[in-house]
Every structure is written in structure tokens, then in C-alpha cells.
């Protein structure tokens, strides 16, 4: 089983690369954003709880997210592993994820792959995406810059934890999609 934490700031190509990793290694992507939307849409107990915080403009407590993640990992699945996207974002969440993967899957997080792209390139990519995506957060340079800064601030401690474990790998996220995929594939082949 291969379990990957995938990092990349907005505009790094993380979504595209996640899809390529899924196809190549038969993985299942678990995005906390998708979990929230699913649970809220289906009015689950955890969804109602998450919505109660979101409706007040508050952050959803870690435990609610952890419970959703645990439920998702307990579902029958034919995948050969998982890509965790959007979680963990803090040292506490990192520890929780390690425990969940150990308890539910009897496995470990193998690697944290981090797509590295210069901020100027990220801004260019997001502005270009904003021209066609209709996303307002992709059309304002100031908002984009803030999102990128927030990403680095939030993920720094998680990156440090994985560096200490020898599981953190930076991959250049600039170039042809196939070239970047090949670099990611090579890193995963090292742990298989």
C-alpha cells in the first residue's frame, strides 16, 4: 500500500498531478474539501456538525475532520493506497493522520510529495486559470498572493515533521506535465 501526502500551493498543478498518480498507481484521492462537501450535502451527522461551524464563519475543529477521514478510510476500497490532499495542515493533524493510517489501514504515510513552483509562476498560472474558470479567487492578484502566503504559513510545520522523518520530497512543478509526472512516479517507485 502506498500512502502519499501531496503538497502544492494554489496553481502548482497538484490537481493534475494527483490524477496522474491515481491512474498510474491505482490510488484513491482523499480531499478534505470533498469530504466536507459530501457530508454536508448528504446531511450526515458529521456534515451537520461541520456545517454548524462553517455557518458561524468558524474553522471546523480538527476532530470533526479526523472523524470524517476515518469514516472514509473504513469504506471498502480496491485502491492500492491513498493520496491525502488538504490534510494535514498542522503538526496535530499530521500526528492524527499517522495514527488513523496505522489503525484503520495497518499502514504508514510513505512520502510527502511537495510540488515546488516560484510564486511569480503561480500567480501567472492562477490569473490565466481565472480567465476561464470563473473563480473570483483566481482573478485578483492580491487575493492570489495572500492564498499562496497562507499556504506556506500553514504547511511549513508539516513539511518540517516529514523532513525529520526523511519522508519529505520536493519536486520541481515547472515544466511539461509529463516531465513532472515522471519525476513524481520515480519518487514513488523508490518506496514501492
TrEMBL record:
It is found in: Cytoplasm. ATP binds at residues 11-16, 129, 175. It comes from Kaistella antarctica. Keywords: ATP-binding, Cytoplasm, Kinase, Nucleotide biosynthesis, Nucleotide-binding, Transferase. Pathway: Purine metabolism; AMP biosynthesis via salvage pathway; AMP from ADP: step 1/1. Residues 31-60 are annotated as: NMP. This is Adenylate kinase. Belongs to the adenylate kinase family. It is an enzyme of class 2 (transferase). InterPro entries: Adenylat/UMP-CMP_kin, Adenylat_kinase_CS, P-loop_NTPase. Catalyzes the reversible transfer of the terminal phosphate group between ATP and AMP. Plays an important role in cellular energy homeostasis and in adenine nucleotide metabolism.
